[in-house]
Specification:
This protein is mostly helical. It has 21 helices and no strands. It has helices spanning 13-32, 37-44, 48-51, 53-65, 69-75, 78-98, 102-116, 119-130, 136-164, 169-172, 175-188, 202-225, 230-252, 266-296, 301-329, 331-349, 358-373, 376-385, 392-436, 445-482, 497-509. It is a multi-pass membrane protein. The chain crosses the membrane at residues 12-33, 53-73, 80-98, 110-128, 140-161, 167-187, 199-219, 231-248, 268-293, 305-326, 333-352, 358-380, 466-485.
Length: 510
């Protein structure tokens, strides 16, 4: 039986549903804590650098374990993997809720991350195993609900909970769902993915951890510590050297931990390139809009979260629809239309001023989210469709790893661009104000403070706009790449232009 025919005849919808819920709450938990960090600082009397490790540590554990997920998915059954992951996540959630000290809370977050890291690659691999190529778009469209909606609603939900309850409620509200999913899966979860008796290469794990972990930490710390900090450029250099060494080692192995030879499949390589570019640009709105809303315009964190909520709802509603459209028309048309919307709306975000209404910002962000919903999953699914069945674990692990790293790089790049532009503009505006100031008039301290505040806000606004402009250019690169997408047929081959024209002419003739 060929790899492309070894698909489940009847997809296990009940099992997939429980996996969806498990993945949803684990990804939701990743962004749920961000708004609560100030409250945690006050309770445990710690500084911002220390509390940030609750987010950074979670991300690092994901960056270390996700590349190794290809090995775990091939070596162990999907049932044992999910039960282990869900057990770790549940224990971590319980420990976090009860944590008496910051050290215990940080340990709990690490345990949570160890469980959640396996969720996305495992769920994606099960989807690829359970559905044939011609139906994967619809299935992966529903999968987009987990991938995009969970992190989007996290800040809004946590903002409301922290405003009305203790930060511990963020864990208390997740815990019952985690326990239910764990108990239900013990009785109902079955095995559908094939296993192989492969051995784990310890050196590959070490290189992967140093490589991807170093890159994630270095780029994530750049916005706070600055690029000149030894810890930033040191970990990035270690990460680059380790990743290069890892690639060469994997290419020489018969049973690699992470198969880099999958990039010989052109549609997978192209989908990875588009995903990297888009992930780099995608974080612009998620990072810059809250800064603009809260710091410059003076809205509350809750308002910032609510502004993004309609976009999350639109992405959730569109994901299954986009999946069906992908099955019917392929990824190319969807990607071109979606990226055109994303690039256009990102450009409009580069024209922000002090007067733009809250509703206008919400509409613009929602339209941008609508465009984003038409791109990520269709492009990713089209690339995975070209891989043979035995390469699916490597494809899902590679996709998730590249998104983590490119997201961190994109966030660091855009924050750096914003900061540099803000500093330059502050100097320029301050010099201009000093020249224009009448030396014969004595300025009061209040007037000077007001002038300085206006200069800082105007400079930061200029920095945000310039970062969005850079993001627009990056998104434009993804749009250009989208024109090279070709549809993958049910036998794993790429549809050629003349085949598509014949099919179109046949439909027209009928």
């Amino acid at each position: 039986m060929s790899a492309f025919n070894s698909i489940q005849h009847k997809p296990p919808y009940g099992m997939i549903a429980i996996l969806f819920i498990g993945a949803f709450i684990s990804i939701l938990n990743e962004t749920l804590l961000n708004v609560a960090l100030p409250s945690i600082m006050v309770e445990f009397q710690i500084n911002p650098t220390a509390v940030q490790w609750l987010s950074t540590g979670y991300m690092l554990i994901n960056g270390i374990l996700i590349p190794a997920s290809a090995f775990f998915i091939q070596r162990f059954t999907n049932r044992s993997l999910f039960l282990t992951a869900m057990t770790l996540f549940t224990l971590g959630t319980l420990l976090a809720s009860l944590s008496p000290t910051f050290g215990v809370l940080l340990t709990a977050r690490m345990i949570q991350a160890a469980g959640s890291a396996m969720m996305m690659p495992l769920l994606m691999n099960i989807m690829l195993t359970a559905f044939p190529i011609e139906k994967r778009g619809t299935a992966m469209g529903i999968f987009g609900l987990v991938m995009f909606v969970a992190p989007a609603i996290g800040p809004t939900l946590s903002g409301w909970l922290v405003e009305h309850y203790s930060w511990r409620m963020l864990f208390d509200i997740v815990l019952p769902f985690a326990i239910f999913i764990l108990v239900y899966s013990i009785f109902k979860l079955k095995n559908i993915t094939p296993q192989r008796d492969i051995k784990l290469d310890v050196l590959s794990i070490v290189l992967s951890s140093l490589g991807f972990g170093g890159l994630l930490y270095g780029f994530s710390s750049a916005g706070d510590k600055g690029w000149e900090h030894p810890l930033v450029y040191g970990t990035i250099i270690i990460g680059i050297i380790s990743v290069i060494t890892l690639i060469f080692r994997q290419l020489r192995m018969d049973e690699p931990m992470l198969e880099f030879r999958i990039f010989k499949y052109p549609m997978f390589a192209l989908s990875s390139a588009i995903s990297i570019v888009l992930s780099t640009a995608m974080f612009s709105a998620m990072i810059l809009v809250p800064i603009y809303i809260q710091t410059i315009r003076g809205f509350s964190p809750m308002d910032a979260g609510l502004l993004m909520l309609p976009g999350a709802v639109i992405m959730g509603l569109m994901s299954p629809i986009t999946g069906r459209l992908f099955d019917k028309y392929g990824a190319r048309t969807l990607a071109i239309i979606g990226l055109t919307i994303v690039v256009t709306t990102t450009f409009f975000f580069s024209q922000l001023d002090m007067e733009m209404s809250y509703v206008s910002l919400m509409v613009l962000f929602t339209v941008r989210s609508f465009g984003m919903s038409m791109v990520m999953m269709p492009v990713m699914t089209n690339g995975l469709n070209q891989l043979p069945m035995e390469a699916n674990p490597h494809g899902t692990a590679m996709n998730n790893t590249l998104q983590q790293v490119s997201g961190a790089i994109g966030a660091a790049l855009l924050v750096t661009v914003m900061n540099n532009r803000t500093e330059a503009k502050t100097t320029e505006l301050t010099d201009a104000a000093m020249v224009a100031m009448d030396p014969n008039l004595v300025q009061s301290e209040q007037a000077m403070a007001e002038m300085q505040g206006q200069i800082i806000n105007e400079a930061m606004l200029n920095g945000i706009n310039f970062s969005f402009l850079v993001s627009t250019i990056i998104g434009g690169a993804a749009l250009v790449l989208a024109f090279f997408i070709r549809r993958v047929k049910s036998d794993g081959t790429i549809e050629k232009r003349d085949e598509k024209k014949k099919a179109t002419n046949s439909v027209i003739a009928k």
